[in-house]
Amino acid sequence: MAFYTSGSFYQQIYESPYKVSLNEYMYVQVSLRRDDSSLVLFLDTCVASPNPHDYADYRAYYLLVNGCPRDNTFSTHVSGSRSYARFSFQAFKFLRAHPSVYLQCKVLICPANDYNSRCRQGCRTRKTRSLGSQHQMATMVLGPITLKDVEKSAVERLEDKVAKVDA
C-alpha cells in the first residue's frame, strides 16, 4: 500500500511521515507483491486511526466499510477487477485533532475467474449468504500522516503571547 502524488498513480510518495494540507486529496494504491492476472483485489474496509495498532479505537474514522464509502470525499478508482486497488480521499479535520494518523485497509483477494466472488459484488450494506466463493483477506497499514505546518491564526499567536507574559 502506498501514497501517490496524483490520480494518475504514476509517482509514488516515499516521505514519512506523509505531510498533507487540510482538504488536500490523497491518492492510495494497494497492490499484490507481484502482478498476477489470475487474482483481483477488492477494498473492503479502510479506517484512519491515531493508533497504528488499534483500529477499533473510538477515535477511528471510517472511510470505507464493506466496500461502501463512509466519507463523502472517498472515491474508488479501481477495485475488484485488477490485481491492485486505487482510491482517493481528502485530508480531513480528523488530522487536526491528532498529531498523526495511520490508514489501515482490509482487502479481499479473489480468483479473477470467479464472477460470484465477494470481490465482484461491490458495496454491500448487509450480510448475505456465501455462495461458496473463496477469497483471502489481507490487512495493510500506511502512515503516519501528519498535517503540514500551517501558519498560526491570530488567536493562536495572541494565546502564545499571553502564555509568555504569564510565565
UniProtKB/TrEMBL annotation:
Residue stretches making up the ZP domain: 1-126
A Pfam family annotated for this UniProt entry: Zona_pellucida
Top-level division of the source organism's lineage: Eukaryota
Stored InterPro entries: ZP-C, ZP_dom, ZP_dom_CS
Keywords on record: Disulfide bond, Signal
Keyword Disulfide bond: yes
UniProt xrefs under PANTHER family: CUB AND ZONA PELLUCIDA-LIKE DOMAIN-CONTAINING PROTEIN 1 (PTHR14002:SF38), ENDOGLIN/TGF-BETA RECEPTOR TYPE III (PTHR14002)
Entry protein name: CUB and zona pellucida-like domain-containing protein 1
Source lineage: Eukaryota, Metazoa, Chordata, Craniata, Vertebrata
